Amino acid sequence: MLDTQLTSSLSYKLFRADQVRENEKTAAANSNCDMFTLMQRAGDAVFKQCLELIPNSDVYLVLVGQGNNAGDGYIAAMNAKLAGKQVDLCAIEPERILEGDAGIAQKRWLDSGGEIKHFSTELLDRADVVIDGLLGTGINSYIRNEFADVIDAINSSSTPVVSVDVPSGLDANTGQSLGRCVQADITVTFVGIKPGLVTGAGKQSCGKLVYADLGIGNAFQSLAKPSATMLNIDHFKGMGPRDVHSHKGTYGRLLCIGGNRGTAGAIRLAGEAALRSGAGMVRVYTHESSIIQVSAGRPELMVSDSHLEDALQWASCVVIGPGLGLDAWSESTFATTLKHCQATNKPIVIDADALNLLCKQSTAFTLSQSILTPHAGEAARLLGVSVDDVESDRFNYARQCSQRYHSVCVLKGAGTLIDNEKKTWVCRHGNPGMATAGSGDVLSGILGALLAQGVETDIAAKYGVVLHAKAGDDIAQQHGQRGMIASDFFDAVRSLINHNQ
To answer: Does 290 carry a binding-site annotation?
Structure first.
């Protein structure tokens, strides 16, 4: 979840931590602000979030390291003390005198009568809220044991945590945990939103993400180019009204391919999702043993187990992969489909087992209008790396996948990424309830339907991902996350695609 104190487009842009460090001083000067004033604003923003998280909190535990994050922590501690709170401030090296602006903040804390203590679990146990200012965005190697021990204690406690700029131990650019990482309830990030905070494990570690531009956002944006952009449903105008004189052929002919023996449900979900997303006609090519299961109860789907070449000629675009399998039937079907789409420059969505077949034959096909929809495991196989590699640097591997296959890559997961070789977008919607069988098949059907209706590949990928994720959020809001199933998405997506005009 992302809250923002800024309504401009800057709240949707992502900037690497080094971009913030390199440009914030100039941005502050251009905004008639010095760096210590910026630190004061950061500390103020952190304390404000503590009050909102635990309104009646009396005991604050502020944990600081040695960098500017520590300075922000000292300012937040001063605010809490002035507000009448009991404040325990602990440093990893309590005797160390800090330099620069952080040193000024430290001195003000000491001059006000504040103490700097050694960390103890007793102090943690009695706290109502913890301010985590241990480590900032500058770390890029595994953290030292003295920090790791404190982070372990924080994560073992039930005390709410507000992290300063980034949860300590998290790589702000990649979202990778550097050995240990604070699991925050709120993270207040400053000047620019860092990419590692909005996808994968980093999104989990941040909790609720709050963005504060500290009054220099516009000046900073004029100096730095964003590394990625966040998307939500409000960024899309929708499909618009249909022409009165249109007919079913106007809205495309989508062919969905998959559903091997025992996996008919996957391609059925994709096909029905495509119908509910506005595709004019949907045909399913499936294994002979799956015909009854795919067609039962959904007569609008045209289902066949033969004449694949004819079906491909009929189609204006293709979805392949849900329930496809990895046997001889799958391999033959896959090869025929990709050869046709390559020869005719036909848009195609490649998902699930088709991705596993693609990585075995990646040099055989060049598809200029394709969308790949891997989860981390499939992306790892496509790129010949480990799942841990992918999850440790999702932005990097989404870009590698799109470049290697010259496709739009949709890297699924918390904070799904969309990459088109040149730009990266992050979906702000989505929730853990969507981790359910068939959810990805529904996404493929949505993407195929958008392509069938003439939406350009890049826009179809972005809009389709956002529609799918926002539908998941709407379902969770109405019914809760647990128990969400893939077919729940049909009505939610239909509603969104019609009301988001």
So the answer is: no
